[in-house]
Write a structure and sequence with these properties.
GcrA, two-stranded antiparallel ribbon, 200 residues, mainly alpha, single chain, GcrA cell cycle regulator, elongated, DNA-binding
Length: 200
DNA sequence: CCCTGATTCGC
DNA sequence: GCGAATCAGG
């Protein structure tokens, strides 16, 4: 594979979106994250600075400080949080286990940082009691990861209100293929039969 | 252990 | 120019 225009554009786009090199590599295919990083550097966009619009690329400070290695990645996406998920009283975004397209895991990181609604919130409601019990139990063991700590193999089940400090992601090992751990898969993927219309 | 980006250097 | 190996860190 080579860096044709399309691929470079994709790279630029995703990098600009804050995607990690490994994710970009996966998306592009045929390259490793090293290749992506190498390309990023060659393109001169290693620093996720929006190149100065006024042609002022704001070159790194000519700081003669001896310490070329490890340039702390000081990124501050700081999205605008505040969306009250509780507003979702009417809708019930719980995915069933059929043609449901839960958040594609490769996109989840791209979506969340953008201040978008989070994955299926367990509106503890209408869910198999057994599964629920299981959840509350494993939540004690949850690793309580932050957004940045999530990976393809950590449960992305959100717990709490994003607007409060008591917000975290489950983080337990995911069930192969799914975005959630076993317990959360249990409540997220309800058989259509069990979540029958209870009102709707 | 999982992951991140940064750098080096032979190709 | 490319990217694997390596490094430095979370």
């Amino acid at each position: 594979m080579s860096w044709n225009d399309e691929r470079v554009e994709m790279l630029k786009k995703m990098w600009g979106e804050g995607q990690s090199a490994s994710q970009i590599a996966k998306e592009l295919g045929g390259v490793t994250r090293n290749a992506v990083i190498g390309k990023v550097h060659r393109l001169g966009l290693s620093n996720r600075n929006g190149t100065g619009p006024t042609g002022a690329p704001a070159p790194s400070t000519p700081d003669p400080k001896a310490k070329p290695a490890a340039a702390k990645t000081a990124e501050a996406p700081a999205p605008k949080p505040a969306p009250k998920p509780a507003a979702r009283a009417e809708e019930q975004p719980e995915p069933a286990n059929e043609p449901v397209a839960v958040a594609p895991i490769s996109r989840i990181k791209a979506i969340i940082p953008a201040g978008q609604p989070l994955p299926p919130q367990p509106s503890a409601n209408e869910i198999d009691p057994a599964a629920l019990a299981k959840v509350s139990e494993i939540e004690k063991k949850a690793k309580k990861l932050t957004l940045m700590e999530l990976t393809e193999r950590t449960c992305k089940w959100p717990v709490g209100d994003p607007a409060t400090p008591d917000f975290w992601f489950c983080g337990l090992p995911v069930q192969s293929g799914k975005p959630y751990c076993e317990a959360h898969v249990g409540v997220a993927f309800q058989p259509m039969s069990s979540r029958r219309d209870r009102k709707r």
